[in-house]
Amino acid sequence: MRQIVVVDQHWGIGKKNDLLFSLPADMKHFRETTSGKVVVMGSNTLLSFPGGKPLKNRVNIVLWPGGEEREDCIIVQDLAALFEEIEKYPAEDVFVVGGAMMYKTLLPYSEGAIVTKVEAGGGAEVFYENLDEQENWECVSVSEPMETNGFVIRFCTYKNKAPLAFGK
């Protein structure tokens, strides 16, 4: 399992249950990376999508305690059920896509993270863990900078040197 996230220069990820930036190149990267795969999210992330509908061409697993079953995605009630569901898929096909609580809760179990870094501040209210300051995490690759919609971004790949096993 890996995480995929966009952060501003302060590791901010969102405000008012929305993204900080409109980044067409990152959206394309996200689609290409996760299409045909499994995306894991919390209920607020699902509800933030247009019409509260899950992402197309992906298996959507949503941790939503008290959430009603739906035909368009898999709703799990707790972390144990989430881990049980995730284990049905190859680890390299599973991506945590938000929100902040899901990122934080699942970070120790994630083998890696694909972080799009934006060279700007976004006025965030919600933040991602600064992986550059995490003992078990190391940046293993950084793309060349690219410009999209007036912002400079870089795709950075991080590796967790000691991911926890589910249920530990």
UniProtKB/TrEMBL annotation:
Span of domain DHFR: 1-160
Domain of life: Bacteria
The enzyme's E.C. designation: 1.5.1.3
Keyword tags: NADP, One-carbon metabolism, Oxidoreductase
CDD domains noted in UniProt: DHFR (cd00209)
GO terms for MF: dihydrofolate reductase activity; NADP binding
GO BP of this protein: dihydrofolate metabolic process; folic acid metabolic process; one-carbon metabolic process; tetrahydrofolate biosynthetic process
Pfam families, alphabetized: DHFR_1
Pathway linked to the protein: Cofactor biosynthesis; tetrahydrofolate biosynthesis; 5,6,7,8-tetrahydrofolate from 7,8-dihydrofolate: step 1/1
The family this protein is said to belong to: Belongs to the dihydrofolate reductase family.
Record-given protein name: dihydrofolate reductase
Lineage of origin: Bacteria, Bacillati, Bacillota, Clostridia, Christensenellales
